[in-house]
Amino acid sequence: MQTFIIVIIAAIIMAGMVYLHRRHWGFNKLVFLALALGIIGGSAIQLIYGPNSKTVTNAIDWINIVGNGYIALLQMLVIPLVFVSLVSAFTRLKAKTNLKKMTANVLGILLSTTAIASLLGIMSVIIFNLQGAGFIKGMAANSTAVEAIKTHQETLKGLTLPQQITNLLPTNIFADFAGTRSSSTIAVVIFSLMVGIAYLWLRDNQAEEAHVFAKGIAALQGIVSRLVKMVLELTPYGIFALMVKATATSSFASIAKLGTFIVAAYVAIIAMFLVHTLILTANRINPVTYYKKAWPALVFAFTSRTSAGTLPLNVKIQRDSLGVSSPVANFAASFGLTIGQNGCAGIYPSMVAAIIAPTAGINVLSWQFILTLMAIDVIASFGVAGVGGGATFTTLMVLGTLNLPVAIMGVLIAIDPIIDMARTALNVNDSILAGVVTAKNMDELDYDKLGNRKNIVANEL
To answer: How far is CA 67 from CA 34, 122, 210, 232, 303, in A?
Structure first.
């Protein structure tokens, strides 16, 4: 009966949001309302019943038909959207020179910010004095988490870092389109880039065939874009359901026990957001305008913990709200999904490695260790999984390369969802940032859409 009451209340709240949507409430307002109601509702459920009660488990299962269903629909679109977006970016290129400049800009931003994020992760551990495993002494590792980590270890067993990178290459593209590997997304990215390059050759040598291919891709992109718009209409309801789950099931006791690590992680993430803000300012982009427009994507990334699921919204916001041209938006969003994620491939692996390193007799303050860890993080960031928990796989790659033990991850996994929310928002913000800055550098930024022309003109004067 209690489960039924919780589910009915959640249904009434979502029905109220449907009413507000029909009353022409703005998308941003609905997203913010959904976030607030989700936090309040989930916290109330946990305070009344506790995070592990059967009532909560059953109620969340029903409520998350909406949340998990929304993520499933978005993930359904990821592979088609990656392929169509990247190939269409080539078909829309005006000149070959644009490709080199665009790729260099996007990758330069993604990888350089990952290196900075790695450094901030190390600094956060040092500032909060988390070196060594003393702060988790006596805490039991989650048995389920340990088994999951062992599974990841088996996947990487016997593979050097170069071999792990080689493993990202597509061998059966149809299997990768079906998502049969953890690295399927980057395999599709690589295949799409090869198709795009082949198209450029076709355009220069067989113009008629290239024109037919481009029209087909344009038609396919139109269908995929329409599917994206249909699914994105569900964003506020998905965010509400996901936030209820996050706050109702994340034990307050676990949060308190590992609170210092959570605070240290959030400090590093916030610091990295400030770095992003400085990059925007240096490129004469108004940060207030930028974050106001990027907000829906960041909120969804925060609640869903999936960069892949945020991809459709990421592309839409870059193109329609921030004024980034379609080719650049498609490149930046798709590359940012699998390369250079600041949170999952930069901050988190560095923090875990810096905590464990002293137990292996390594001086965390050594510049040799810091530079080595930063370099490994950047290399390991190629092919990071854009889904919840992707940081675990990347961190195992980093720890394995440094020959460090992984037992501590069985403890940290208890509060990983709390950190992963902010990590994912940072990952998505970095890909949007890469798109905006690249578009500006290539003179493909629509300042009228961005609403930033006055500021640009004032700065230039």
So the answer is: 12, 34, 41, 13, 10
Q: Among candidates 91, 330, 326, which has minimal Cα distance to 215? A: 91
The C-alpha atoms of residue 168 and residue 379 are separated, in whole angstroms, by 12
Please report where in the chains the tokens 């993520």 appear, as a residue: 71
Closest CA to 239 of 9, 22, 28: 28
Instruction: Give CA angle at 70 (69, 75), nearest 5°.
Output: 95
Angle made by CA atoms 24, 317, 31, in degrees to the nearest 5:
45
Residue 454 exposure: Cα atoms within 13 Å on the Cβ side: 2
* Cβ contact 70:237 at 8 Å: yes
**H helices, E strands: number in the chain:** 22, 0
CA distance 436 to 360: 42
Q: Could you report the per-residue pLDDT of 48-61, keeping only the tens digit for each?
A: 888 778 888 899 88
Q: C-alpha angle with apex 333: 75 to 220, nearest 5 degrees?
A: 65
Task: Give the lowest-confidence range in 224-233, 344-353, 426-435.
Answer: 224-233
Cβ pair 404, 153 in contact under 8 A: no
Q: Residue 86's closest CA among 73, 105, 99?
A: 99
Six token digits for residue 325: 């041209």
pLDDT at residue 347, as a whole number: 94
Alpha helices in 92-183 (DSSP H): 96-127, 143-156, 161-166, 173-177
Selected residue with higher pLDDT from 339 and 18: 18
**Percent of the chain predicted with pLDDT > 90:** 25
Mean pLDDT of the 347-373 span = 87
Quote the CA–CA distance of 378 and 68 in Å, as a whole number: 31
